[in-house]
Protein: Enolase C-terminal
Amino acid sequence: MPNIKSIEYFRVPPRWLFVKITDDAGNVGWGEASLEGHTQAVEGCLNSYIDRYVGMNADDIEHIWQTTWRLGFYRGGPVFMSALAGLDIALWDLKARRLGVPIYELLGGKVRDKLKVYAWIGGDRPADVLEQAKSRKVQGFTAVKMNGTEDLGWLDSPSALDECVERLKAVKSLGMDAGIDFHGRVHKPMAKQLARVLEPYRPMFIEEPLLSEHPEGIKEISRLTSTPIALGERLHSRWDVRPFLETGAVDILQPDICHIGGISEMKRIAAMAEAYDVAIAPHCPLGPIALAANVQVMAATANFAIQEMSLGIHYNVGGQDLTSYTHNPEIWEVDNGYIKLMAGPGLGIEIDEEQVRALSQGAKPWVSPGFIGPGGEVREW
Structure:
């Protein structure tokens, strides 16, 4: 029986939190518990989990998941579920490596050999995206995503939406598909207009047209446009997801594997979505462990649509990118819009532990940006 001997975590640049679990036979698994802008909170949660789970059977992944969910009285939310994700992903990696198989073999086996992917362009204050889109096309991408707008007032000038339309038209002129992320920064009076003016140019989807705290508003906007509605990065469990499926307000679900409790919950959420004919396109602007975990689940998921990649995303500053911290970064090479499914055991990536330990020394927590409006008011970022 492989018991958990140690649980360690590493804060690494640009903004990631890695978890390493070792069993008493020396087997190792890696997970990711990144929660952008709230690193210290997740670290505190992990400290309590270390005390609880050292000595438990590392093979009992579901038992550990349920223990974390049900015995804490308070449960769910981004901090608890991100910390749980780090443990869950690491336990799946450890178990599959010990058995010498990819994780997807433990999830029923693969249904595809490669996965469609997209990359970011533009940044938080998107400007000229045409050159960036051209660069992505050279990299092998056929689809991109970009922020729809800068910050907006609750009721802003309709002309503030014009640039978003022009950016979409520019990317489409290259023969590429583009998702438009409203980022929850667009309030309903403007979101209704933006959804309508984008529709003739056929975006791949519009993401978070409103924050998920406004389910009725999202449902209303979904009735105003034929463009697919995507959301899910700020939903943290199958219970959070359920009302959006039941009301038919979402077409593409975007759970973040680092924010929903890991591989175990991602598989369950994907199965729920399939029953409502909703596609899965996992949110993942994070590190290589998170992406590898998504790939393992999506390899075995029938209703998978497309996977977000953080390669070259505007948050990856200081020299670290998706290809950092691993010995086999070539697995992220994109060919005609797809990446190949990894064949190695566990997550299919080989962590460079020496680099992880070195760069975690003195690593500062990432702080979320913010927008201040012309009147000095705080605006949604």
Summary: The CA atoms of residues 326 and 351 lie 4 Å apart. Residues 77-99 form the longest helix (23 residues).
